[in-house]
Amino acid sequence: MNVENCCIVIFGASGDLTFRKLIPALYNLHKVGRLSERFSVLGVARTELSNEQFRDKMRDALIKFENASGETLDEFCHHLYYQAVNTSDALDYVKLLPRLDDLHDKYGSAGNTLYYLSTPPSLYGVIPECLAAHGLTTEEFGWKRIIVEKPFGYDIQTAKALDVQIHRFFEEHQIYRIDHYLGKETVQNLLVLRFSNGLFEPLWNRNYIDYVEITGAESIGVEERGGYYDGSGAMRDMFQNHLLQVLAMVAMEPPAIINADAMRDEVAKVLYCLHPLSNEDLKNNLVLGQYTAAEIDGEMAKGYLEEKGVPEDSNTETFMALKCEIDNWRWAGVPFYVRTGKRLPTRVTEVVIHFKTTPHPVFSQNAPENKLIIRVQPDEGISMRFGLKKPGAGFEAKEVSMDFRYADLASPSLLTAYERLLLDAMKGDATLFARTDAVHACWKFVQPILDYKAQNGRVYEYEAGTWGPKEADKLIAKHGRVWRKPSGVMKKKV
Fold first, then answer.
1. Lowest-pLDDT choice from 80-84, 144-148, 196-200, 486-490
2. At what angle do helices 23-31 and 51-66 cross, to 10 degrees?
3. Pair (194, 67) in one structural domain
4. β-pair type (319-324, 286-292)
């Protein structure tokens, strides 16, 4: 599928996401020749800027973040334009009409427009309405698509209300709910690994898998986002969207065909099969935590309550661990342990498939466990762990590994998550974007946790730089299991 000529309209063009992620992603796609030659980018925000001022700002960002230089940079910047609009005033959107007409004429993009909402969530319902008021959402002349950043809603009620709002002006096929985790190469590779290898596909079920572990760890604190994060917490920030989507891709059935609808059908089915959380589950299978001040590498790290913008009595969790189950034929009885948190020892996202031990380990009572480790970030790769005989006398087994790292490929040329997802949206490929039913299923599953939080449920403390509260270790230990403690690098014995 080729990229057609189009105009990319970025709302919130003066914000952090635009110059850190979106413009660098578009620049890199242009540099490697993945964009059509005739594309344009229109930045929209309240700030008054000329085209030149906007270009200079983006040029500086590209030099800083991408080490961009030379002709390619100059050429790319000529495709950038800017229009100041009061994004909450419908009348002000009239300014977009002549600008978009001019850009479509100049670049021959035939009305094809991709809107990107890099704005506060409060505008997610407003902007579509204002665009529709000026006929900028209809597909009479060229396609119109809209990308919505997370958070998509704040709970099940607000997610449904937002859906209703957006669906008044955009059809489902036009809406792309972006989750940058799904754009990561290893997440997608998970599907190929599972479904194209006779080595794994027959084993991917309750008969051979003991349990699954999913970790989304960050070493940083909340930094400058204290105010935003306090209203969100680890559950809304990471678990409800990123990690549940990754879980669904680990657990989904093979799609009948490889297209967006078939893939997203299977993801949604898994999410609807998640075993509903009872009061008993909240008591026994959920651990919430909040980091406290501690020394890390010789420097004092602030506790969460000391962070800028965080109320001093906040009960918001910066860590969560949950044991969940999937009520279907393939996964009955297999626990999925999911954890995420800030101020953990390292930044790492990985999935660990723990296979069952052999029924009668005749060669060793302490035979190593078979594991498949799928590293999503930062050092993308896959590692297989199994037992081999220790050199010397006897039959004692030791753990060895077979490792694959994308970094070891001769020319890895991996697209970043935003590069991949922007490219897919321009092609009209929605495979890696969340569909409305999947979003609702996620919110429905986590609603009991939200209710528990609202009732001031127990939040345990943990020192910054550790793997969370000791209660999280107990959560998995009572089933005779332990969390893996990964490093940030995928190499032998990580």
1. 486-490
2. 80
3. no
4. antiparallel
